[in-house]
Design a protein that fits this description.
By secondary structure, the chain is α+β, with helices and mostly antiparallel strands. The chain is built from 3 helices and 5 strands, in the order E-H-H-E-E-H-E-E. A 5-stranded antiparallel β-sheet has the order 3-2-1-5-4.
Length: 96
């Protein structure tokens, strides 16, 4: 199997507290059907236990040049894959 093309390999870090999602990210998740009207995440193929763990993780995003919650990273168009505690990122600029 060929390796996925990626520009960055970003380490996933664990925070003490749950990472909060910004209003802009929440509206994007609702628009794409990944969050219901009550604010509950509905990610396909992700168990509730894994979702709880994902809420406590974050990455130092090389694209937005700031720390971002892993869920924000997971739904980003640059997200390629997560392998052994690292995220493979395409590194393309994001459209506003």
């Amino acid at each position: 199997m060929d390796e996925l093309e990626h520009k960055y390999e970003v380490e996933v870090k664990v925070a003490e507290k749950t990472q909060k999602l910004g209003d802009e990210i929440k509206s994007e998740l609702k628009a794409s059907g990944m969050m219901d009207d009550k604010g509950k995440l509905k990610l396909k193929g992700v168990s509730p236990k894994m979702l709880k763990r994902m809420k406590q993780e974050y990455v130092s995003c090389p694209v937005i040049k700031a720390d971002a919650g892993f869920i924000q990273c997971f739904v980003c168009p640059n997200f390629q894959s997560r392998v052994m505690g690292k995220v493979l990122c395409k590194g393309a600029p994001l459209k506003k």
